[in-house]
Amino acid sequence: MKKPLIYYYTDGACGTGKTYQALSKIAMAGGRHLFVVESKKVMLERQSNLTAISIETGRYMPSLAIMSDDDRTTKRLGVRRRIHDLATDYANRSDMCVFITHEGMRMCDFTEFAGWSIWIDEVPDIMDSESLSIGVSRVMLDSLYSLAPILKDDGTPTGWSEVLCRDAGVDLAMIASDDIACGLRALHRRVMEAKDTGRRSVIVNGNDWSEFDAQNRCNWFSLWSPLHVSMFTNVTFLANAFTDSLTFQIMRSMWPSITWQEVRTNSTRHFEPRRVTIHYYADGHVASRKLFSSEQGQDNLRKVCQDINDRVGDRPHIWMCNKADADTVKLPGTQLSPRQAGSNDYAAVTAATCIYSVKPDSDQRKVYELLGVDSDYYTETHERETILQFMCRTAIRDPKSAANLDFYVYDKTQADYLLRYFERDERGYAVAGTVMHDLGFAKIERKVGRPAITRTPDEKRELARQRKAASRARKAA
Fold this sequence. Notes:
Elements: E1 5-10, H1 18-29, E2 32-37, H2 40-57, E3 63-65, H3 72-77, H4 79-89, E4 96-101, H5 102-106, E5 116-121, E6 127-132, H6 138-144, E7 145-151, E8 157-165, H7 172-176, H8 185-197, E9 202-204, E10 218-223, E11 234-238, H9 246-254, E12 258-262, E13 275-280, H10 289-292, H11 295-312, E14 317-321, E15 334-335, E16 351-355, H12 362-370, H13 376-391, E17 405-409, H14 412-423, E18 431-436, H15 457-476
Parallel strand pairs: 1-11, 1-12, 2-4, 2-5, 3-4, 5-11, 13-17, 13-18, 14-15, 14-16, 16-17
Antiparallel strand pairs: 6-10, 7-8, 8-9, 9-10
Helix pairs in contact: 1-2
């Protein structure tokens, strides 16, 4: 009987000690562990945390951080190769904790990691992509994989293709043992998974390998499957509001064979009562690159900045914005880059601002559509989750702080996302509420998306006929 696939998760709010307790378990229990974090900076912080815990407990746990720029050997072999080699390099070591990034996890194959445990800190992005120059290696790719053109509903080509395996006899073991092809391990696993599930797994921006010459790069996209870490003895996700994320909803829907089991932290931290006020400035429209690049949008941002300046005053304040808006957004305090997940450097700050927008363009929407994922996932992962992580770097993570906090965002969708995060916590982590400030543009509506197309009944029937014919053609192919 096949062993049930159980993944564990801890999704308590920031400041509840999820990461500290996970590192403590690693230090005390020993064994071989892969600890996955969002960035190189956080990787080094977590490694330092583990060392401190080891000294504190008297239980030494050796550790290693794998990144792309630490020495010449790394540059030569590459992160991917170094991660793959861990399984053999440390096969006879009883204790080892290796820190890698989310990107490193997505691009690797872990078939040989039985006996290891993996800890995934923060919500991972399950969309993966890579841009490759394959002027020579396209010949090898052509011998391994065929390209099946993806058609529109009317039967015309989209310009994209699904990558399919030509020879089912070429398995992962053969790819892994080949010194030239071993870099294709993660890609090959995904292509083989598509064959097993019938779900489109890898798509590429072309219809024939010969299209990818020196001037035309090969761009492939795929969904990272949580089954890619199923060989680990234990799989644990550590993330704020993990079960509320679209990442979790997609994984639970697309991979129903996984059973998800919560592990609650044994946190004894008592959080002082404090109030979080989430301020926003737009209700009828949302933040977007198109808006912020316009004269009207820049005028809106200047008004927002003036209002935030008046409200924040001399309080400790951190803020971030899109790089394209740096000349327009002028705020007091400390400006940071958007990606601050995992940092504890600003735990005394009581005010934070995110004037930030990340929306998918038409090409990105097409990729998500072709892989069967709602494009709103892109906005939640790249915009709203980034805002949440930024806000959680403040005094909200300090249990001893009773100071009230003020968070500033541009639109209601961003404010509501933050509000849901605080409302879901059962411990009274913080009392949160939203406030809209109408500076004269809050209710202005902006048209988004494609214009509606009006069709006659005959045109609708003809379109339905074309879609059915295209569907039959795809199935026949």
